[in-house]
Specification:
Layout: E1 4-5, E2 14-24, E3 30-40, E4 48-51, E5 56-62, E6 65-66, E7 72-73, E8 77-80, E9 86-95, E10 105-109, E11 112-116, E12 136-145, E13 151-154, E14 157-164, E15 167-178, E16 185-188, E17 191-198, E18 204-211, H1 220-237, E19 245-251, E20 258-259, E21 264-268, H2 281-296, E22 305-306, H3 312-330, H4 333-352, E23 364-365, H5 374-391, H6 393-407, E24 411-412, H7 414-422, H8 434-437, E25 443-450, E26 456-464, E27 479-482, E28 484-487, E29 494-498, E30 502-506, E31 509-512, E32 516-522, E33 533-536, E34 546-549, H9 553-562, H10 566-585, H11 593-605, H12 610-616, H13 622-626, H14 634-651, H15 653-659, H16 672-688, H17 695-704, H18 708-721, H19 723-737, H20 741-752, H21 759-767, H22 777-790, H23 792-795, H24 801-816, H25 818-824, H26 826-829, H27 836-850, H28 857-872
Parallel strand pairs: 2-12, 18-19, 19-21, 22-24, 25-34
Antiparallel strand pairs: 1-23, 2-3, 3-9, 4-8, 5-6, 5-9, 7-8, 10-11, 11-16, 12-15, 13-16, 14-15, 17-18, 20-21, 25-26, 26-32, 27-31, 28-33, 29-32, 30-31
Helix pairs in contact: 1-2, 2-3, 3-4, 3-5, 4-5, 5-6, 6-7, 9-10, 9-11, 10-14, 12-16, 16-18, 17-18, 18-19, 19-20, 20-22, 24-25, 24-27, 25-28, 27-28
The structure holds (3S)-3,7-diaminoheptanoic acid and zinc ion.
């Protein structure tokens, strides 16, 4: 299959400055009439190439002459002979939205029509130069039966609406030139929640959220989140909204989270609908974050867009960074940061260790949809965060202002972005740019020598990145390190010397750019041998790296108690837990008391802060533990983790039980104090559920809970604690919520992650559930996705049955929705970390997939890379 390469970029031979679309909606015969204003760029005689897939072409005219017979049509597009330099091209084609189950282009979601064009979906609607550096002004006329389609929506501002012979006809005009991937239309009947927003400069903007009938009350939180995001972007980045109306439509059938189409976002209903009875605290958090993310794209993505898809992180990494800043301002900054770090450690490090490892700006792509990854998004955001640390808040803002000034209305590259940042600082960023081209997770090794005579503390730093798929040679990267050196009583040592390879940016921030280097700290009035000194290098997880540093248990205890940085304090306990799991794996579960006494001390110190306590009491997930080891037997690891949790719960039973409280009398609200209380209850129960006598509390919690967070805490705990209780509560839950698809997804997910011996029969039964459907991505992700990603013992079963089950399903799903299939295959291609036996079983299934006739590009790219990596490694 065809590989596209970043370095092959050439500017488009033709541009299209305006597009007029006339779309007459019909389930199987939607008629699309398109009039394009085309201009040749430069001097050449090439024909005009237009992308088009799955289209039924009716006619083509250049200006007024019919050239249908002269065009050459293939499966991927058409070639149009043309002699003029500027001309109008008139195309008519048909498409069938009701049979479009891949959910790319125009499709039906329930009774409504909607579109998804990023990355390359516009070519499934009509013929076009479907690449992000062709920016055009769109005028769109939609028509559909008056009955059933009271709302006809498109990008921009509505300029006309009328009815004619039972048809509704609406015309929209978007004055901002945009790439085709931001095009959207929606038609259907909805409940609408409306409000307005007055921008900083006094312009009145109409806001509207469209949801399924009967769901209006679940849309108000999203609308308010939008208003908060609009204000925040004005206050923090000086960015205002630019159209007269901002619309969000929520649909139940959607391949991912949401889409930032200009003025007309389309969302997975999961990230819009939220009320006190059905949404968890995490759901509220996610709704606010995703609404903000799509809104922030209006500047970082829409006004300034990507030149080509290899530059995706230009808009995604930056917009994720912006939504992370926003979320930290709206909720608990520490929990927000820790959940981002967990995503990096559980998922991004895993991707970087696999055959799909790629730089945040990839070099080669077969199917672009495969590159909406944790690397491009989350590591991309970490790269922006590093720039933010290096430049500091003010200069970073200056750099952003320059970026917008220089590039508004243009399609640009990651290099253009770094150039704008460089203009705001005297710190040389040329070495930093390597983060855009080098893949893999660097390992930072830290050593410490204390000279008892001089009192000097010498820290040695070195960095190394293992070869990754397609990149055998690695170079040192620029690592901004937030450092601290202090004694057990909290006395801070001053940095006195930094060797070559290090730039000191401030008292606690350095840039480490070489393979190895040294720092020297002066201990003046303290006496290191008697007062132990510790050094930490990665406050706030200041670079996306793994750290290797030998810490004794007592040094970790000092860090957990005294480090100035909350991430370091949390991480010190995480590494103690990691060590505890390792000891359990080695059969030493009787030897954990030294660890537990540190945990006790730390939680006593922080007993007043529920948010922090909840984080401190969370044992690293199996997924993040896997990234700390090689040659992993996932079943043994999962059992060792469970054993560790059980021992921890026994040892801390008194403390944990004392902190465990039933929900307070106040009714549920998504507000931070309550969120902290529920989060702590969850963390405590996740440990105490290893002890059988917690069952009564779990049942009680389920009965008294007035909110989805506590209800799910009870179900999660029951899943671990007592299978009879779990079955009974799940039955009750289904009775209550079977009519509510978002809540029902949680129920499917809980079934899929249960540690049961006959999990595969459970899955088979659930696939036959009347509410399960292969063409509903949320359902498929809830059942099969949750199993593959999070049911360690089921998915990695020794006999390979879990792998086979998922593979069999993917073969079917690939025919319906290749994008979703290619997401769910992720855990299967990440075999590198496992022992030989598991690797072999995983590869056997990957080979079966690769041999499947008619495999999609999406699965082919991931599976073939994964198997080819085997030969190379
Ligand atoms: N830009 C979209 C993602 C599109 C994914 C295409 N397969 C959502 C977002 O990141 O905001
Ligand atoms: Zn995005």
């Amino acid at each position: 299959m065809k590989v596209k390469r970043r370095l092959d970029y050439t500017p488009p031979p033709f541009t299209i400055s305006s597009v007029e679309l006339n779309i007459k909606l019909h389930p199987t015969h939607t008629r699309v009439e398109s009039t394009l204003t085309v201009s040749r760029q430069g001097v050449h005689n090439e024909p005009l190439w237009l992308d088009g897939e799955g289209l039924n072409l009716v006619s083509v005219k250049v200006d007024d002459s019919d050239i249908t017979a002269q065009v050459q049509v293939s499966e991927t597009g058409m070639s149009v002979p043309c002699t003029q330099d500027t001309f109008k091209l008139h195309i008519v084609n048909h498409i069938s939205p009701s049979t479009n189950k891949a959910l790319e282009g125009l499709y039906q979601a329930g009774n409504a029509y909607c579109t998804q064009c990023e990355a390359e979906g516009f070519r499934r609607i009509t013929y076009f130069t479907d690449r992000p550096d062709v920016l055009a002004v769109y005028t769109v006329t939609l028509s559909a039966p008056e009955e059933g389609y009271p709302f006809l929506l498109a990008n921009g501002n509505k300029v006309n609406e009328r009815t004619e012979n039972g048809e509704r006809i609406a015309t929209w005009h978007d004055p901002f030139p945009k790439p085709s991937y931001l095009f959207a239309i929606v038609a259907g009947d909805f409940d609408v929640v409306e409000d307005n927003y007055v921008t900083a400069s006094g312009r009145d903007v109409k806001l509207a959220v469209y949801v399924d009938k009967g769901y209006a009350s679940r849309a108000t939180f999203a609308l308010q989140a939008l208003q908060r995001a609009m204000r925040w972007d004005e206050e923090n980045y000086g960015r205002e909204y630019d159209l007269d109306v901002y619309m969000i439509v929520a649909v139940d059938f959607f391949n991912m989270g949401a889409m930032e189409n200009k003025g007309l976002n389309v969302f997975n209903s999961k990230y819009i609908l939220a009320d006190n009875a059905t949404a968890t605290d995490k759901d509220f958090f996610n709704v606010e974050a995703v609404v903000a993310h799509e809104y922030f794209h209006n500047w970082t993505g829409n006004r300034v867009t990507c030149r080509d898809w290899f530059q995706l992180s230009l808009k995604e990494g930056l917009t994720v960074f912006r939504d992370q800043q926003f979320s930290a301002d709206m909720s608990s900054p520490l929990s927000t940061r820790l959940s981002q770090i967990n995503i990096m450690r559980e998922h991004q490090f895993a991707e970087d260790a696999s055959a799909m490892s790629h730089p945040i700006r990839p070099d080669e792509v077969i199917e672009m949809n495969n590159f909406y990854t944790v690397t491009v998004y989350d590591k991309g955001a970490e790269v922006i965060r590093m720039l933010h640390a290096i430049l500091g808040k003010e200069r970073f803002r200056q750099g952003m202002d320059t970026y917008f000034e220089r590039h508004d209305g243009k399609a640009v590259t990651c290099d253009d972005f770094v150039d704008a940042m460089q203009s705001a600082t005297t710190t040389d960023l040329s070495h930093f740019r390597r983060w855009y081209s080098q893949s893999g997770t660097p390992v930072l090794s830290v050593g410490k020598v204390v000279n008892s005579e001089s009192g000097e503390v010498t820290i040695s730093l070195s960095q190394h990145t293992k070869p990754t798929a397609g990149q055998p040679d690695k170079h040192p990267l620029t690592l901004p390190l937030r450092i601290a050196c202090y004694t057990s009583t909290g006395k801070v040592l001053a940095l006195s010397k930094a060797s070559e390879g290090i730039k000191v940016l401030s008292d606690d921030l350095i840039m480490f750019e070489s393979e190895c280097a040294e720092l020297t700290f002066n201990s003046h009035d303290i006496n290191p041998p008697t007062e132990p000194v510790v050094f930490t290098a990665l406050g706030d997880f200041s670079a996306p790296v793994k750290v290797e540093q030998s810490f004794s248990v007592s040094e970790r205890s000092i860090v957990a108690m005294a480090d100035p940085d909350p991430f370091n304090r949390w991480d010190a306990l995480q590494s103690l837990y990691n060590e505890g799991v390792l000891r359990c794996q080695a059969g030493e579960s009787a030897n954990l008391n030294d660890l537990f006494s540190v945990v006790k001390e730390v939680i006593t110190l922080h007993s007043h802060d529920a948010h922090l306590l909840a984080e401190l009491l969370s044992v690293p997930s199996v997924e993040s533990l896997i990234q700390q080891q090689d040659d992993v037997d996932p079943i043994k690891l999962s059992q060792a983790r469970a054993e560790f949790c059980r021992c921890l719960a026994i040892s801390l039973n008194a403390e944990l039980t004392a902190m465990l409280q039933a929900p307070s009398a106040s009714t549920y609200a998504y507000e931070q104090e309550q969120v902290g209380e529920r989060k702590l209850r969850h963390a405590l129960l996740m440990l105490l559920s290893y002890l059988p006598d917690t069952n009564a509390f779990i049942e009680k919690l389920y009965q008294v809970s007035d909110n989805m967070t506590d209800t799910l805490t009870a179900l999660n705990a029951a899943q671990r604690c007592n299978s009879q209780t779990f079955i009974a509560l799940m039955h009750d839950f289904e009775q209550k919520w079977h009519g509510d698809s978002l809540v029902l997804d949680k129920w499917f997910g809980l079934h899929a992650t249960q540690p049961s011996r006959d999990i595969l029969s459970t899955l088979t039964l659930l696939k036959q559930h009347p509410k399960f459907a292969d063409d509903n991505p949320n359902r498929v992700r809830a059942l099969i996705g949750s199993f593959a990603f999070y049911n360690t013992e089921g998915f990695h079963a020794k006999d390979g049955s879990g792998y086979k089950y998922v593979t069999d399903y993917l073969m079917e799903l690939d025919k319906v929705n290749p994008q979703v299939a290619a997401r769910i295959v992720t855990p299967l291609i990440q075999w590198q970390k496992f022992d030989q036996a598991h690797q072999q079983l995983m590869k056997t299934q990957l080979s079966r997939l690769l041999n499947e006739p008619g495999l999609s590009k999406d699965l082919f790219e991931k599976v073939s890379k994964s198997l080819a990596y085997e030969q190379a490694s």
